[in-house]
Fold this protein.
Amino acid sequence: MNTNNKPIKTEYKKQVLRILTKSFGDNISTNFVIKQDQKKSKRLSVLMEYSIFYGERFGEVFLSKDKSACYIIIDPTKKKLTFQTLIWDMRLVFHCIGLRNLKKVMQRESLIKKEHPKEGFIHLWYIGVEPEMQGKGRGTELMTQIIAKAKNDNKHIYLETSTERNFKFYTSLGFKEKSTITKLGYPLKMFVL
């Protein structure tokens, strides 16, 4: 489902949330952001709800027709601070990150933003595929769609990943490794196309 900056239907939002929480539950970079305690799975859900909110307002949330794969892309030129985004940011801090983790997460975001391309780009924030559907071309189909959209908009695609098995996937699609952030205690690779 292509949202084109319109809020997505509740049933689609629930499916996107389910796919992303399954896909990113063990992700090193995601777990760096989430306060690690007995509420970890709830905190992951809050992070993904936050990401869907931002995708709806400042980019695109897409769910495949078979409802097995999704992505969230952000157009940084559309991002702006509003009362509603401030409320979501505060919710993220108190229900996901935690006050003790806030400084390290802010440092992480600062390091990532320094690596962003200077010219117009699409930020691939999340791409997820149902675990039982992985390896069947769903991710490639979504990436083909994102690449076509970026070419149509005459923009680069930027992403970061800490998942080693994804490095080869992105380079096979033509992405170039821009840099690696090593100051976080884990390698976070930046790719651009």
